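Standup notes, protein team

Yesterday: finished cleaning the Myroides pelagicus set.
Today: Adenine phosphoribosyltransferase structure.
Blockers: none.

Input for Adenine phosphoribosyltransferase:
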Amino acid sequence: MEFNIKEYIRDIQDFPKKGVGFKDITPLLNDHQATVQTVKALKTLLGDQKIDRVVGMESRGFFFGTLLAAELGVGFIPVRKPGKLPFDKISEEYALEYGTDILEMHADAIKPGERILIHDDVLATGGTAEAVCKLVERLGGEIVQLNFLMELSFLHGRDRLKNYEVKSLVSY
């Protein structure tokens, strides 16, 4: 039987606010075999490219980012919101629909020349992923690919990431 990740992603209407259709991955996380198949599928997106680290964004990017890093036998780097990382850090401000936000990464997380896979659960407008790319490149990392569980193609986030290889398991 072929694995279909969409069967494990449920739609929640009007969350986190009215008018938003949220893609809930908790059913996927709750099913061991679906989780294992998802990690294998994410690894397949990478092909035979070699990487040194997986970078994952807070917070849903941590779930499969850490599992993928373990599967690949490499380290995992968390990117977090301000005030969550305890050591020297660099930060990147990025635009939201209304206002701005900031992401941070430890300043010693990446050595120049390391090959980086950036992972998150969803590619929406691309603002978060673009900010993470800037953090990685400021530390001298080479971005091999960005991968996502799902892409909300109607939001055109891929357009902001046109200088990078971008892959996702499913598109809506």
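Follow-up from PR in the comments: The chain has one domain: 45-171.
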